[in-house]
Protein: DoxX family membrane protein
Amino acid sequence: MPHPDRTARRLAALLIGAGALHFARPEPFDTIVPRSLPGPPRRWTHLSGAAELAVGAAVAHPRTRRLGGYAAAALFAAVFPANVRMARDWRDRPAPLRYGAYARLPLQAPLILWALHVAHHAER
Structure:
């Protein structure tokens, strides 16, 4: 297992990269916003991107890493409905895209466990 700081930095990089992508290329994210959310999908794309940026920054900084790890776990759980929608909506896409959408579903569990690992190993 890599050093806890390296593990946390990798998680922070994943979150910050994903958050930035929500602003640089928002269209794919707009398409997976659950229809039950009020308002335009772009608002939710930007809100989730901002949340990923903020949580990534919290994970990156040792003083806020514990809280950031817990926030990352909650964020990964919160975006699960969007992944479900993507898997459902992409049933008719070409096989590689369809399988990628399906793979996102079980991937949430290790992401949540990774975030909890970072939180538990953060210095107090």
